[in-house]
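Open question from group meeting: does this chain pack into something compact, or does most of it stay loose? Before anyone orders reagents, we agreed to write out a predicted structure and look at it together. Recording both the input and the output here so the notebook holds the full record.
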Amino acid sequence: MKTKIFLNLAVKDLNKAVAFYNELGFPTNRQFTNEKGACIVIDENIFVMLLVEEFYKTFTKKELCDPTKSSEALVAISVDSREQVDAMMEKAIKAGGTDYMQSQDYGWMYQKTFLDIDGHHWEVFYMDESQIPNEM
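Structure tokens returned:
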């Protein structure tokens, strides 16, 4: 079995959170979705588990942070082109996300950042690995 990544995020309103990620073009895996959580398919082996805050708390002894006020993680996702970076950013804003940071263009890497509707930090980037400078 290939290694899979499941990113678990606490959400306030499951239906709104699912709608947000569906608007970005990521489908819901209904097999792993109920009233407590939803599985969003990012890629064949990458998933986001959106868990209602009370359910999320059953997996940790730590306090939940408010991602609109504290940084819990920086989630970065690569896409195949600069145009796809722009398109995902447009979808995120249209779906209720927030344009969070100024775009970054390093020539070999292009990046935009948004916050989802719960304040989780996402960086969308395109990187042309053949253009990475020898000295960083």
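Observations to bring back to the group:
The chain has a mean pLDDT of 96.
Residues 57 and 63 are 8 Å apart (CA to CA).
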